Model the fold of this input.
Amino acid sequence: MADDKPDVAWRVVGGLVGLATAWAARKLLGFAWVKATGKEPPIDPDSPEVSMGEAIGYAVVMGVGMSVAQIVVNRTAKKRYDSWRGLKQQVTPGS
Done:
């Protein structure tokens, strides 16, 4: 670990990638929800007009979908960024 300073450029790029990923994943998951259920995603899952099953299903789909999208995109973006900067990937056990 020669340099423990945070890479400001990566923090900016990573933040922008995160915002874009969240927006795109939300749109894609909403589209998939409509195709799978035939209904628009619930605007307020806490509303009594939304069934408990639908609210929980929507929360699970959004939570898992958003997390998976963030992991995949962040890892890919970091790998590309490090490659572009000429940095070597550090291999850690279990990764």
Summary: Helices lie at 8-37, 52-85. DSSP finds two helices and no strands in the chain. The mean pLDDT is 83. Residues 52-85 form the longest helix (34 residues).
